[in-house]
Design brief:
This protein is α+β, with helices and mostly antiparallel strands and 106 residues long. It contains two helices and eight strands; from the N terminus they run H-E-E-E-E-H-E-E-E-E. 12% of the residues are buried.
């Protein structure tokens, strides 16, 4: 019985996470969005699934939209999980030589 309970807990924990991938025909990198949690959703955004974009994680941003642009990804984020309906727009650019850059208020 304990084994069954442990297995069910493990399955329930893993089912609380999901992953989405965003490709852009203009860019040579993709964004990967991992969603974790139940009541308070945590979004982890990364470049090619490897380089974590810490600004969104540290700011507890909820990623609403990811849009492909010729110069980078436009990201619309909010604090909807905290009942704050205001959205903020960011531009994320990346190059292998310079790394990534996040600009807000575009």
């Amino acid at each position: 019985m304990k084994f069954l309970l442990i297995m069910l807990s493990f399955i329930a924990f893993n089912s609380s996470a999901s992953t989405s991938q965003f490709d852009c025909k203009y860019l040579d990198y993709k964004l990967v969005l991992k969603t974790k949690g139940f009541e308070h959703v945590v979004h982890e955004l990364s470049i090619n699934g490897k380089t974590l974009i810490t600004e969104f994680l540290n700011g507890s941003w909820f990623i609403e939209e990811v849009n492909c642009k010729k110069t980078g990804y436009e990201i619309v984020a909010s604090h909807a999980q905290y009942n704050d309906p205001i959205k903020k727009v960011f531009m994320l650019t990346y190059s292998k030589e310079k790394g990534y850059k996040v600009v807000s208020g575009i």
